[in-house]
Amino acid sequence: MWFNDLGFSENPFDDSARHKLAGNENIMEDIIYNINAGNIVFIEGKPGSGRTAILKKAIQSFMGFGKVSFVECQKIKDLNIEDVLKGKYNFIERIFSKMPNGMIVLMDDAGELDKKNCERIKYFYDQNYIKSIIFTGESYNKANFTESLKDRVKKVIKLNDLKEYESLDILNSRLNGKQLIPDDVAKEIFERTDGNPKKFLNACEELCKTIAETKEEKVTLEHVNKLLPLDKKRSVEKSTEKSEKKNAGKKKEDGPVKEEKPEDLRVIYEDAAERYY
């Protein structure tokens, strides 16, 4: 396997609960507290922001007693929360339709729950069949929850956007300090994946696969350009940014620099405007 060639026993970018969370380590303490307290919590974040990774961490913390149910709502066509709860028990108990008590339910992408399931969840929670529920979704305010279920949501946790320094910290943790992706290259990957944790890690994985196949020592900007080419808008922005930095340096060394006339840049901006504005 490619990761063996780079000195790893397993894929360092695998979406595993063992790995460090992307910028949301402090949230796990809050989640575990609320589960133990028997609360309902909604985790709000964009796709790829680490919602599923947090639920997997929760599974790791509470697994082993047959009391944790993880539901990927978007992958179940006809979701029935009652069937989900009964499915945690063995065949004999299913025959007698025995409902378990004190279940921890983790529901990923739960924003589109129908009214019937919302009422079932409320009922099972009130009757203590469910001890705690952790929902995830893009927006709590836009979630298709009934008012009675919303009344029982104790807390809404919003996931923060990944910061550049956090992306470097995560990458260093995943690679165990191996300098396969230099910091300046990692920063470029971070920028081109818009700070999205999932996209960032997926891109780093693909780039590491590339150097494993080509037997190169590290990922370079050339590799990044092939995998994540800059669109024309970003090329213009980067060119402008570099020009500004260069001019700022000249002002310090040589005094004021002659200001560029708008017509000097007109061709560049007009070309960009055709595609993006």
Q: What does this protein look like?
A:
It is a single chain. The relative contact order is 0.13. The chain starts with a helix and ends with a helix. It is elongated, with a radius of gyration of 25 Å. α2 (about 25-35) crosses α3 (about 50-60) and α8 packs across α9 (about 185-190). The protein has 13 helices and five strands. It has a five-stranded parallel beta sheet with strand order 2-3-4-1-5, with helices on both faces. The chain has about 280 residues and is of the alpha/beta class. The chain has helices spanning about 1-5, 25-35, 50-60, 80-85, 90-95, 115-125, 145-150, 165-175, 185-190, 195-215, 220-225, 230-255, 260-275; strands spanning about 40-45, 70, 105-110, 130-135, 155-160. The chain folds into three domains: about 1-15 and about 160-225, Helicase, Ruva Protein, domain 3 (Orthogonal Bundle), CATH 1.10.8; about 25-160, P-loop containing nucleotide triphosphate hydrolases (Rossmann fold, 3-Layer(aba) Sandwich); about 230-275.
